[in-house]
Amino acid sequence: MCGIVGYIGQDNALDYLINSLRVLEYRGYDSSGVAIYSPDGHIKIIKAKGKLNNLIELTARNPQKGKIGIGHTRWATQGIPSDINAHPHASSDSEVAIVHNGIINNFHELKEELIKNFKITFASDTDSEVIAHLLGLELKAGFSLKNSMLNIINKIKGSYALAAISKNDPNTIILTCHDAPIVIGIGKEKDLFCASDSAALLQYTDQIIRLKDRQVAELKLNGEYLVFDGKTQKQITPQIQVLNADPVSLDKAGYKHFLLKEINEQPAIIRKLLAHHVKDNLKIEFAELKPELLKDINRILICGCGTAFYAGMIGKLALETLAKIPVEIEFASELLAREILVDEKTLIIAISQSGETADTLLAVKTALKKGAKLLAITNRSDSTLSALAEGGNILIQAGIEVSVAATKSFTAQMLCLYLLAINLAEIHNSLPSEKLNWLKNELRYLPQIMEQTLARSETYREKILPYAQQKAFVFLGRNFNYPIALEGALKFKELTYIQTTGYAAGEMKHGPIATIDETTPTLSILLPGSTYHKTLHNCIEAKTRGAPSLGVIDDLDKSARQELDTVFEVPALPFSEEYKEFQDFFSPFISVLPLQLIAYYLAEHLGKDVDQPRNLAKSVTVE
Ligand code: G6P
């Protein structure tokens, strides 16, 4: 979604802004812009609808010199994507320019007041523009830029990360935030940066300060940075954090798309996580968790959005199967729609790749107020979620995920949940140690089998392309592979834009079957396990009604292979008669791979924007 960047230092701000905006492209946006404080004493604003290249072309035609600047990528919420609605926005007298992420909830009232009492004419349809006018009025009344910001945060309601520059105070960038992240980057040459996503700063510094809600920061041209508490208005000493993200994640490493690179990174991430958490004596360690966090709980509530939610669905199955603790799972947005019933014996597990998804953060904050314990599974140690879960963080260590469609974060989240389930089973003595040891041993085969599966990419590509002209697909699965049917369908629709629906295979007969005919290919996940035969029946029922039948099967399969039109074969997982109950336990790690790949290859074939599908944002920072 929207992204903010800023630079103040002795170099040309524009170069830094464009480079940083380039990094933020992955978040999804529909316009971009910059404001530069120019040596002639004016603020120059340049903005353009569409891709960042449009802005780059404009700035190349009209290069702006200046040491201070702010920039923005906008994902439209209030007001259509257009040049005018793009940020930065300026006050009527062009005294101040702002960039904003978030939503100002009381903007209608504020706008009315500004029009009625101050005869202000609005240039855009955005909520953000009120902030520029409010600041402009404060500056006119004689307040410094910092004090103007401190004053207006008492007037605006909603979520915001804000950066502003002003002619009035030309050596300064002012920042503030509430329920939306913004960080300061401390450069080596007394230069300072800011960004709503620290990924934008990786190329310049690893020293950051995360602003807390309603703090106001002043970045100075001489390299000084001052942080104030918005309530007391007193200066505070901020905590400097060291960024540990790997800049290599921002490189395609020879792959055509970030998505393909990230799909292929999965075995290495799983291997790394296993090495980190499973010790040589097969002991599972979560060194980052406070020991008391996992004790004395009688209920678990998982929440997340999108792909993170589907990882949570599989986590629920793993946790209930092993730890025998009742687990509820809910979309964060739905949790927010009702009373969240939790207490101090409830562990809320919030899953979020970015750690910045608004719904997830709000649900977590509500649960925390009611006394629940929080465990966060995230990819970003510098995120708001991670800060909320101090002593309760499991990092998925997947490296920055650039492609909007989540892939590597999904399998990494699943693995963390599996390890947590085994660990909880040990703590709660819910299963004999031989069983748990067998499971831990089995986990070690996963990276290799995942690699063998990915090595079949080309075959999967060849097999899916004949279906390129289909208008709708249905994905079916049961038990551990029901969430995989949902996640596979999500990947398929977000990348190819083809209507794709995932169902619990057993639900087929209760409605979805009415949509099935020869134009609706049905893809079933048919890996060995207790539900294999039932799922195969559902698949045949669809086939009987004319649906082309596709399936994910393993190399040893005999029955489904004969029934299906197209099979995506994966290597068989090790099988033990003694531990037959766990036959499909690990299959999601393998079955999801062909589904990610067929979505990628078909989208690529159809000429879609694979890394940044239309209308989607990587991190959804508004409710
Ligand atoms: C957006 C992304 C999805 C992601 C979801 C949750 O919708 O496009 O890929 O799964 O947000 O994001 P999170 O960062 O909380 O995992």
Structure report:
The protein is an alpha/beta fold. The chain has three domains: 3-242, Glutamine Phosphoribosylpyrophosphate, subunit 1, domain 1; 249-444, Glucose-6-phosphate isomerase like protein, domain 1 (Rossmann fold); 447-612, Rossmann fold (3-Layer(aba) Sandwich). Helix content is 34%, strand content 22%. The chain has 19 helices and 25 strands. The strands form four sheets. Strands 3-2-4-1-10-9-11-15 form an eight-stranded antiparallel β-sheet, with helices on one face. Helix 14 (446-454) runs parallel beside helix 19 and helix 15 (457-464) packs across helix 19 (587-605). It is globular. The relative contact order is 0.09. Bound molecules: 6-O-phosphono-alpha-D-glucopyranose. 6-O-phosphono-alpha-D-glucopyranose binds at residues 305-308, 352-354, 357, 360, 404-406, 616, 618-620.
